[in-house]
Design brief:
The protein is an alpha/beta fold. It has helices spanning 2-5, 9-23, 85-93, 120-126, 138-141, 148-159, 164-177, 183-186, 196-208, 226-243, 254-260, 278-283, 288-295, 335-339, and strands at residues 41-54, 57-70, 74-78, 101-110, 113-114, 131-134, 214-218, 246-251, 263-268, 271-277, 344-346, 352-354, 362-363. Bound molecules: adenosine-5'-diphosphate, iron/sulfur cluster (SF4) and magnesium ion.
Length: 378
């Protein structure tokens, strides 16, 4: 990675130490997420719809997405590029660029209220407070002209009115939580002085500094070297087990989902097409799109970047076909698939799949919100 070659030696060594520490716990095929799920629901998303008004028409980037997130669990949202994962994340933060984007429907229940109903000033307290997001690219998340102390300190002081020595202690604590070595010295560094792995950790420190109940990690590892990825994923799990944080983990990589997540929602063309326990979905994918995604993961043990080999392209979201959006690429397509969006079928074990191929199984009519025809809520 180009950015890694420019790092000062001591920083590279810091990463190496963390990575080495992580090597013992590499991706293993029998590790399917974490087991200690607590029952308390921290976030409930119901029939979320986020559309963009474009000159080509209305882009239905998120179209009837429902899921719940429990305390201490990791929920994966997986799908190809352009399926609506990031717009889902931005909607949860109410950071969708508007215009052209608008959240046109749904509810996002957090801490007992619908955050879609909050005023912008109340939402500012929630954002980066109870719900926090780690951006895809650590470099764009950090401001190059401020040092680590300023950036982590700013995040902390927004939500906790502290100054001076108390603030410094909190900054050091946050950096320590993300296992940054020698935090007192390292907090004087600017982003360009840090390696990719350390930058990612600083972004992580900002993300958790407000002690949120929900953390959204949107493809947090894509710009990182695979060994640093493994260390970072492990770090997220450690923080979670210490704090009971609920994590929404967004990725295009089913291999990472299998390693990281407890439950998963598979997203295609703005909708969740299959949802459930990661182990159930990974072992018995029912939806043809999930099957294709999983078969494009070579081996769980391989820590390599993976490319999809699903034939065809995801549809343009302003011009979705009538019926199932996957129909043009689906090897099992039937006439009805092109006529009507499939209902959700209960596969047992909390697995739900929206596919006509499963007709004859238990339909979950009530799971489909009136008028949207969408989604297998997880
Ligand atoms: N600012 C925007 N203006 C118009 N369309 C947008 C905008 N942002 C996102 N979209 C649409 O939403 C779709 C989903 O995008 P995104 O959620 O970023 O996908 P991904 O699953 O790769 O994260 C895109 O294919 C694009 O058509
Ligand atoms: S509904 Fe039809 S086209 Fe869609 S995934 Fe199922 S079988 Fe394929
Ligand atoms: Mg994205």
């Amino acid at each position: 990675m180009a950015e890694e070659t420019t790092q000062p030696t001591d920083v590279a060594e810091d990463d190496a130490a963390v990575v080495q520490d992580d090597a013992a716990e590499s991706v293993s095929s029998d590790h399917f997420g974490r087991s200690a799920i607590q029952d308390e629901v921290v976030l409930e998303v119901d029939d979320l719809r986020t559309y963009f008004a474009t000159r080509w028409g209305t882009v239905k980037a998120v179209d009837g997405v429902s899921f719940t997130l429990r305390k201490g669990e990791t929920l994966g949202i997986v799908g190809e590029s352009g399926s609506g994962k990031s717009v889902t994340a931005l909607s949860l933060m109410r950071l969708v660029q508007s215009p052209p984007g608008h959240i046109v429907g749904g509810r996002i229940m957090l801490g007992g209220r619908d955050i879609l109903q909050l005023s912008e000033s109340d939402m500012t307290k929630v954002r980066g407070g109870e719900i926090s997001m780690i951006l895809q690219d650590p470099m764009s998340a950090l401001n190059p002209v401020f040092d680590v102390e300023d950036q982590v300190g700013e995040a902390i002081s927004i939500h906790q009115k502290v100054k001076g020595k108390v603030l410094i202690d909190k900054i050091v604590h946050a950096l320590r939580q993300v296992r940054i070595p020698a935090p007192e010295a390292r907090m004087k560094d600017y982003p360009h002085q840090l390696s990719g792995g350390m930058r990612q950790r600083v972004v992580g420190a900002i993300g958790i500094s407000s002690n949120p109940s929900v953390l959204i990690a949107d493809e947090p590892t894509t710009s990182l070297d695979v060994t640093i990825q493994a260390a970072y994923l492990r770090l997220l799990r450690e923080i979670q087990s210490e704090s009971g944080l609920g994590i929404i983990f967004i990725t295009h990589d089913f291999g990472i989902v299998a390693k990281m997540c407890d439950r998963v929602g598979v997203m295609y063309a703005g909708r969740l097409v299959e949802t459930g326990d990661v182990r159930a979905i990974f072992n018995h994918p029912q939806h043809p799109y999930t099957q294709a995604l999983i078969s494009s993961v070579p081996k769980l043990e391989e820590k390599t970047a993976r490319l999809y080999s699903i034939e065809g392209q995801p549809p343009a979201l302003y011009n979705l076909p009538t019926g199932c959006s996957f129909a043009p690429r689906c090897p099992y397509v039937m006439d009805i698939c092109r006529e009507e969006y499939p209902p959700v079928f209960d596969q047992g074990d909390s697995q739900r799949s929206a596919c006509w191929k499963l007709d004859g199984g238990k339909r979950l009519e009530e799971a489909i919100p009136e008028g949207t025809g969408a989604g297998a809520g997880v």
